[in-house]
Structures are given as C-alpha cells and as structure tokens.
Amino acid sequence: MGNERETLRDFLDFHRGTLAVKCEGLSDDDLRRQSMPPSTLSLLGLVRHMAEVERTWFRRVINGEKDLPFVWSAKGDYQEAYDASTANRAEAFEAWQAEVEHARRIEREAESLDVTSYFARWDEEVSLRFVMHHLIHEYARHNGHADFLREGIDGTVGV
What we know:
The protein has helices at 4-23, 28-32, 43-62, 89-109, 128-154; strands at 116-119, 124-127. By secondary structure, it is mainly α. A hairpin with a 4-residue loop joins strand 1 and strand 2. Helix 1 packs parallel to helix 5 (128-154), helix 3 (43-62) runs parallel beside helix 4 and helix 3 packs antiparallel against helix 5 (128-154). The longest helix is centred in the last third of the chain and has 27 residues, at 128-154.
C-alpha cells in the first residue's frame, strides 16, 4: 500500500474492476435481466447508474462542470439510469468507462485530496478525499447488489 491518495485510488479501482467482473461473459439480455424479483435492478442498470455517479461527483462537483447534463436523464433523475430495458452493453460500458477515465484524470490533476468544491444538492463543500471515500462506499454497496444479481442469472458467485 502507498500513501493515502494511492490507497484510495487503488480501492476505488478495485471496486470498479469488481463491477466489470460481475458483468463478464454475459449477453445483453442477461445484463438487462432483473434476476432478483421483486427488485427491478439489473447489472446493466448498475453500470449505467455508476456512470452517472462518476460523472456527478468528479465532473460536476470536483471539476465544476455544473451544466453537464446527465447521460440518461433529461430531467436530472439518477433513477432513470437504472432502467436498462432498452440498453445494451456497448453503450452502457462505453459511457461508464469514459466517465471513469474522466474521474481518473480529474483526481490525478487535483492538487491534493483537500481540494474542495460545492455540492448544491447537499448545500455543502466536499473534498476530493470525501468524494473518493463516497465512491468506494457506493461501489461496495452496489457490488453487493451485483453479487446477488449475477448469482440469480447463472449461479456465479465471488469476484
């Protein structure tokens, strides 16, 4: 393990990679499958949601791109990303990977973890350190969902 920043970066990338692994080898139909009724959640919905999360926290908040639209919602609703009924792997993963690359660039260019920016939704200043911790938590929580979704699709468990 390295310093704090390298450790946060490594944990965040581990969780990003875990979500990708949960989706490996599945067809678009499998990725759209809502395999844990009554939940309407799908693996593809999670990927789309995490693209929005990365976009919001790194680009809108830390990088100050306030007018950047949502990827899948004209009205700024995070929940719309979960609806993957007409989505496909290519568009979802392309958007997610693009947002991850933006996030990595923004994090690396930031002077320190103490860089702050205003998050209007909470009416608070947040630091890059907070954002990285928050995304680790967000991925970890959703990777738990991904575990169950993948098991419901084909019985695959583990990372």
